[in-house]
Specification:
This protein is α/β, with parallel strands linked by helices. The protein folds into three domains: 25-226, Nitrogenase molybdenum iron protein domain (Rossmann fold, 3-Layer(aba) Sandwich); 231-375, Nitrogenase molybdenum iron protein domain (Rossmann fold, 3-Layer(aba) Sandwich), CATH 3.40.50.1980; 398-422, no CATH class. The chain contains 16 helices and 14 strands. The chain has helices at residues 10-17, 25-41, 43-51, 70-74, 79-97, 134-147, 166-174, 185-194, 211-220, 245-256, 271-284, 292-302, 311-321, 334-337, 395-411, 415-422, and strands at 4-6, 104-107, 113-120, 123-130, 151-157, 179-182, 204-207, 225-226, 234-239, 263-268, 303-307, 325-329, 345-348, 385-392. The strands form three sheets. It has a six-stranded parallel β-sheet with strand order 1-11-10-9-12-13, sandwiched between helices. Helix 3 runs antiparallel to helix 8 (185-194) and helix 10 (245-256) crosses helix 11. The longest helix is centred in the first third of the chain and has 19 residues, at 79-97. It is globular and about 80 Å long. The N and C termini lie far apart (81 Å). The relative contact order is 0.15.
Amino acid sequence: MLSVIDASDSRRLAVMYRSGWSPSREQAELVAAALAGVRTRGDAALVDAMRSVTEGRFDLGHLRVPIPMDEGARSLVPPEIADALRLAKTRITRFHERQRHADSNFVDQDGSRYGVRYRPLESIAAYAGAGSAASIVMMTALPARIAGVGRVVVLAQPDAAGRIHPGVLFACSLCEVDELYAVGGPEAIAAAAFGTESIAPVCKIFGGSGSLVTEAKRQVFGTCAIDGLAGPSEVLVIADDGANSELVTGELLTQAERDVCARVGVVSESRPLLEAVAQLVDTLEVRTLARGEIIAEVIENSCFLIHAQNRDQVLSVANSFAPERVALHLRDAEPYLAQLRHVGAVFVGDATPVVEGDALAGINALQPACGAARFESGLTLGAFMRSFSVVENSRERMLGDAQPLAALAEFEGLPQHAQTARMRSGA
């Protein structure tokens, strides 16, 4: 049975708190070779890579995938799935439309003018990976459209028969994606970053998971912007003694089935609650569940039940973990919300399961993972835009700034910086 860990036991919690992306040498070398292949051979490298996953059923004509129009798209998925995705589109759109940035301007007392301008990215690519990844398409294409991105590309790995999952096709149609390509793995990231004969490069790459794709994003950063390095799925439940132990356990199992490397945990001041969760997990015999082998491995290696002495310890655990998602099963969540610092998304109350955030809540499901919430914000509309500052000095401002600017530049060993300031001194 799962054991309960004391919140002060830093040694046992070190695995939970580990963060950052650290690929093996073999992974880094494999990805570097794949990127170099695409950079030098272009489309030919993509075709070779996709032949290896489609049993040879792939050629250049399969690379660009036609996106079906409305009538054709409706027949791709069952009616209840189509209705659910349309509902998700409505909510995602409403949530992100309220995040629009307005240019700002102000004039200082001496007449100098300042401003901040917001402009959409020219192009983005969403890496949807293999299988059903409609939610990734929705969470990237819709905010991109709202932000005004000019070109929206989706990259999706074909199945063994060379086909794209119908859910991805439907989502691409629903979100008015411009281009869809049947390509996956590091080669897809390379195509988006460097371009090939068929795929023009983009400004920023979103989505993607798995060690090789994440490492590919790391290696192309600098040539192309990325949304972040997606680590394994993470959830932390913060619960009090009034929480429903079955619902808390359900949150752990939900995230555990996603990824064998997922990290899940519960922190509470109530030891009886933690022991009840441990008992439920043990009673379930998780290996008998669907995806049970994955769940069992996560429960065995990366599931943490943490007993805290007070609220400060609870918050210390949460902010040290910096999880992708936090679920608050509390009578009064506000004091905790006020002090959470490092988290991708928060789900408040037992009527708000974390799964709601995957599509229907409307918030963006692409959140910083692998402890990345220490450094990255949750994905918002701003991720699809760039901002720049504008300054227009008044003559009075420049006359006053010339000498101190020159002095600072000289102090830092930059004589030409100093001279350009003195040239504007009016002397």
